[in-house]
Amino acid sequence: EVQLVESGGGLVQAGGSLRLSCAVSGFPYDDFAIAWFRQAPGKEREGISLISSEDGSKHYVDSVKGRFTMSSDGAKSTVYLQMNSLKPEDTAVYYCAADWDPMERITIATMTPADFASWGQGTQVTVSS
Q1: What is the mean pLDDT of residues 29-55?
Q2: Please, which residues bridge with residue 72 across strands?
Q3: pLDDT, tens digit (0-9, with 9 covering 90-100), for 63-108
Q4: Is the torsion defined by CA of 20, 122, 79, 108 positive or negative?
Q5: Bridge partners of 100?
Q6: 51-82 burial, b if ≥16 CB within 10 A, otherwise e?
Q7: Dihedral of CA 124/18/112/26: which sign?
Q8: What pLDDT, on the 0 to 100 scale, is given for residue 82?
């Protein structure tokens, strides 16, 4: 059984930093994609970063590029999202998500929540102005 457990959310002032963690277990092989999504109140869940399954490259949407950094240990058993220069509009519940992806079908440009079968419970990030 695949399990994802996030931690590290909290309250921070604008301009501050937070690091989220996602502990991943249950994948028998390492050819899975893993992503961070977020959902603000009244808005759809949006994907913001991705580690691709094939080569482990990292990808970001424009709204977080240059401020957020996704990383992992070698086995992708723990994945991190370092968030710097936080803005009030970054306030949301943040989720890590993963799915087996041997053909590398999941890309940052096209990914949606439906592409991922496994989800963490979410962690709240609140950025005050």
Answers
A1: 94
A2: 79
A3: 999 999 999 987 788 999 999 999 999 999 999 999 998 888 999 9
A4: negative
A5: 32
A6: bbbeeeeebbeeebeeebbbebeeebeebbbe
A7: negative
A8: 98
Query: What sign does the dihedral 87-92-96-98 (CA atoms) show?
Result: negative
d(CA 64, CA 48): 7
Query: What single letter denotes the amino acid at residue 53?
Result: S
Selected residue with higher pLDDT from 116 and 55: 116
User: What is the band of 30 on the pLDDT scale with cuts at 50, 70, 90?
Assistant: confident
